[in-house]
Write a structure and sequence with these properties.
The complex is a heterodimer of chains A (363) and B (537). Chain A contains nine helices and 20 strands. Chain A has 363 residues and is α+β, with helices and mostly antiparallel strands. The radius of gyration of chain A is 24 Å and the shape is elongated. In chain A, 45% of the residues are buried. With 537 residues, chain B is mainly α. In chain B, α16 packs antiparallel against α22 (451-480). Chain B is globular and about 65 Å long. The relative contact order of chain B is 0.13. The chains are: A alpha+beta (363), B mainly alpha (537). Chains A and B meet through β6 and α3 of A and α9 and α10 of B.
């Protein structure tokens, strides 16, 4: 198995253009880690994956596996395996036939094939499943067979193309943790594409967010959640409100903090790279659970007021939809102890450390 | 909420269902009945002892099998092109798939005579080009000629069936195989082929069935010595008045056809089962000059061998030949003399009324039964019954009616044609969403509609387009059909197809071609009403 020596997968400006649409991506999957790629349907994430695998010829760009440029190689010579949506098990072959498919194309002897199949089935907890048909397997068993089929040819990198997208929610959750467990155990490098952000954050060591054929931001999931690089990323992730910044005031402090003025209130925020932001379109962002109701009057720095339009009980917290002046609707997570009623104007305080000023689009 | 009672509501189905069964079983029973005149066993023994019996079955089976193989050989490249490639002229190629259903076999036969015959277009061209004294192509009136006519006539069936399956053959599976190191050849052999194999089997068994029951083409090209069981049945009943022998032919050929039908149903089920988890990928352009060259070659082959005969009908219908057969000119003279024929106007009216009557019967039965069959618990009822008429020949049914009634009748002919066209009408109708998705009716029922009301106000309007195409199909097949009327002529009842048969038989080919064009305009109107690609079989 490929576990011994995980390698890095780099997609370098892989570009493909169609009339009215361009996909151009650069991403790195670290050796032995899972890179999750999330984005709305049609954002080009599957195309990026297929370009990396060699199934879709790119117009330009390179694919580098473990430092070796594989762009010119046939799909099967790149050391890249793929687990497909719905797994794409060959329906007319049994489990053993599926798993040994890649070995047969490589001319591996029958005895050796049998040994590999049973070793893989053992390691995935499917001993004795050789003669079953894919149609006789449960969803979880199919996934493991698909993984075994991919791993049988010992790829350095495994790509997962929305493997769970047609399954129901409960099964998805279980199967995605199975994938993570197997990846941790076997140590292969993985890229996991999904349109489901929650799934992507749960699965990925690193997360790339894509839209309109571009990678908007790539980093650890918590970084994307807390420090989105742009309002676009924040809006996709939905981790907190983005209030339009009306103007920025410099304050005479030596820690580089400025005051951003929004229609709803004034906030102190770090000034990093702000000169580029003084133009319009900048947004004030904070984590949706950073705001807490307070008694302070609006106008005080770090406090804003908004009307509560909706209040839903979310188990461990209250989900509160507020309408702030000039910002439309935003969703906040308030502590359960918060006293708010639908229709009230409430004052909310945001700690300075949670506040960031974002450009409209990535820099 | 009121409990749903299912008994009361199935009234239309309760009436139509036995009516349909009667329309199938009464003539079938009557066709088999003469076998019992003087003991079934001795009649069968006599039939089996007749060398003609064995000869005709081996001829019928072998020509049908060879035709199915030829149709597959011609149709498979077309299926690939339609499913996987984008190219100019693709719509034309895929429109050909309506030909086997909308162009009557008689027209194909006439076209082949004009094109491949001794004095046909192809021979004239070849003789002029190479300075030959003898026509080089002389296979038309032989086994090879029959197989060729059948193969070309039916290749669009294979092309459409397999093309549909190929277009939905799971791309992900092919990609998976590629990533696992399979060459393109191996991807095809181990992934694509297994997934389209059932549809190839289904298409070939359908073509086999249609060729086994082919009547006019064999009658015209088969020569006097040999005939399919269908033709021998006709000869025994019409000219030898040996009704027990005719019944023996009817019985055995129906049994054989049922075997082919069972094969078709089995393949069809597997083909449908495989489609469940698949996605459709967009066809791509040609990959490389080699593919372009092969596709162009294929297109030229189809144009020369198949479009040619069809086009020569139109050309011939516009060609005026003088009595000396030397000079010829262009004009509508053939049409003028055709229209001036005394029998023409009644034939036109009879064709229209016969076609409309049987199409109405077929599509009403198709709609009611497709609603009724959905609720049938028994798989035999819901799966086998819709297909059953495919395994029964129109000649046998027509023969059965005339022996049941003691005479021929135009209404009986309409019933025969309705039953024969019904499987095709049903297929078209069943493709409708309104019929396949029960939720719409459930929604209407929950809003207070009665079951009949839901059928009329929800199902019928939703299914209307597919009912229209089912109707058009049935009309085309019935109006173009000459088999039933040749087998059981109704005195004084002439149709265009019959007129065409007679004109072709008396070598008045120019006028026959004019009649063929008029008939083809009538039966091919489905092209103009609907996009041929929507016509599902």
């Amino acid at each position: 198995m490929s576990a011994s020596d995980p390698v890095r997968l780099e997609m370098v400006e892989l570009t493909k253009a169609w009339p009215g649409q361009v996909v151009s991506v650069s991403m790195v999957a670290e050796a032995g880690g899972i890179l999750a790629v999330a984005g709305p349907s049609g954002c080009g994430k599957s195309t990026a994956l297929r370009m990396a695998a060699g199934l879709e010829p790119p117009d330009s760009g390179r694919v580098v596996v473990g430092g070796r440029d594989v762009s010119a190689l046939e799909p099967s010579r790149r050391g890249i395996g793929m687990v497909f949506q719905d797994y794409a098990l060959f329906p007319h072959l049994d489990v053993a036939g599926n798993i040994e498919y890649g070995l047969r194309t490589r001319g591996v002897k029958a005895a050796e094939r049998r040994a590999t199949v049973s070793r893989l089935l053992d390691s995935l907890g499917l001993s004795g499943f050789e003669r079953r048909r894919p149609s006789e397997l449960s969803g979880g068993e199919r996934q493991r067979v698909a993984l075994a089929r991919t791993l049988a040819v010992e790829p350095a990198v495994v790509l997962f193309d929305e493997p769970l997208s047609s399954l129901d929610a409960a099964l998805r959750k279980r199967l995605r943790s199975d994938i993570v467990d197997e990846q941790r155990r076997l140590g292969f490098t993985a890229v996991y594409v999904t349109h489901d952000l929650e799934e992507a954050m749960a699965v990925g060591d690193r997360l790339a967010v894509m839209a309109d054929g571009r990678v908007l931001q790539c980093g650890p999931p918590d970084e994307l959640w807390e420090r989105p690089a742009s309002a676009e990323v924040a809006a996709f992730i939905g981790s907190g409100p983005c209030l339009p910044v009306v103007r920025v005031e410099r304050v005479e402090r030596d820690d580089g903090v400025v005051v951003a003025v929004t229609s709803a209130g004034r906030f102190a925020a770090p000034a990093d790279g702000l000169s580029a932001l003084e133009t319009a379109g900048a947004r004030l962002f904070f984590d949706r659970s950073a705001a807490t109701p307070c008694a302070a009057a609006p106008g005080e720095t770090g406090v804003f007021s908004a009307r509560c339009v909706r209040l839903d009980y979310a188990g461990d917290s209250l989900e509160c939809v507020v309408e702030a002046d000039g910002a439309g609707l935003s969703s906040l997570r308030l502590p359960k102890t918060a006293e708010a009623r639908v229709g009230d104007m409430i004052s909310l305080r945001v700690p300075e450390a949670a506040v960031r000023i974002l450009p409209a689009a990535a820099r | 909420m009121k409990a749903v009672r299912s008994g009361r509501s199935s009234l239309p189905a309760a009436v139509l269902f036995p009516a349909f069964v009667a329309a199938l079983l009464v003539p079938l029973g009557a066709a088999f009945m003469p076998l019992f005149d003087g003991g079934a066993a001795s009649n069968l023994a006599r039939a089996f002892a007749d060398p003609r019996f064995f000869r005709s079955f081996s001829y019928g089976l072998s020509q049908a099998a060879a035709s199915a193989v030829l149709a597959a050989a011609i149709g498979l490249p077309g299926a690939f092109l339609i499913a996987r490639r984008d190219f100019p002229g693709k719509r034309l190629l895929s429109a050909l798939s309506a030909v086997p259903f909308c162009v009557p076999p008689l027209i194909i036969a006439v076209g082949f005579v004009l094109y491949y015959g001794r004095e046909g277009f192809l021979n004239r061209v070849l003789m002029a080009a190479f300075g030959l004294d003898e026509p080089p192509i002389g296979f038309l009136y032989s086994f090879a000629g029959v197989v060729m006519a059948h193969g070309f006539y039916n290749f669009p069936v294979v092309m459409r069936f397999v093309g549909d399956a190929w277009a939905t053959a799971p791309r992900r599976h092919e990609d998976a195989a590629r990533l696992l190191g399979a060459s393109e050849r191996r991807v095809f052999m181990t992934v694509t082929l297994p997934s389209i194999l059932p549809s190839i089997g289904a298409a070939m068994s359908l073509v086999f069935l249609m060729c086994f029951y082919s009547f006019v083409i064999v009658l015209l090209f088969g020569g006097p010595g040999v005939g399919t069981p269908e033709v021998e049945l006709y000869r025994a009943a019409r000219f030898e008045f040996d009704r027990p022998l005719a019944s023996a032919f009817a019985l055995v050929e129906t049994a054989v056809a049922m075997g082919a039908l069972a094969l078709y149903a089995a393949f069809e089920r597997r083909a449908a089962g495989d489609r469940e988890e698949s996605e459709r990928g967009a066809p791509t352009g040609f990959r490389g000059a080699g593919e372009v060259a092969l596709a162009a070659l294929y297109g030229a082959f189809i144009a020369v061998c198949f479009i040619g005969p069809l086009a020569s009908i139109v050309a011939e219908s516009l060609t005026i030949r003088s009595a000396s057969r030397v000079g010829s000119g262009l004009g509508f003279g053939n049409y003028v003399s055709l229209f001036a024929r005394r029998g023409f106007a009644p034939a036109l009216a009879n064709t229209a009324s016969l076609g409309l009557l049987s199409a109405a019967l077929a599509s009403v039965a198709g709609f009611s039964l497709s609603v009724g069959l959905k609720r049938a618990r028994s798989p035999i009822l819901s799966k086998i019954l819709p297909l059953l008429p495919l395994g029964v020949s129109g000649v046998v049914l027509a023969y059965g009616w005339s022996s049941a009634l003691g005479r021929s009748s135009a209404v009986a002919i309409a019933a025969v044609q309705a039953v024969s066209a019904y499987p095709f009408a049903l297929r078209a109708i069943q493709s409708s969403v309104g019929l396949s998705d029960e939720r719409y009716v459930e929604a209407a029922r929950s809003l207070g509609s009665s079951r009949l009301g839901a059928a009329l106000r929800v199902r019928l309007p939703m299914a209307a387009p597919s009912i229209a195409s089912g109707f058009a199909f049935a009309f085309a097949m019935s109006a173009g059909d000459a088999n039933a009327l040749i087998a059981a002529p109704v005195a004084g009842f002439e149709t265009l197809a019959l007129l065409l048969y007679r004109l072709a038989g008396s070598y008045r080919l120019n006028e026959a071609c004019a009649a063929a064009v008029v008939l083809a305009i009538g039966t091919g109107f489905i092209f103009f009403v609907k996009d041929a690609n929507d016509v599902r079989l």
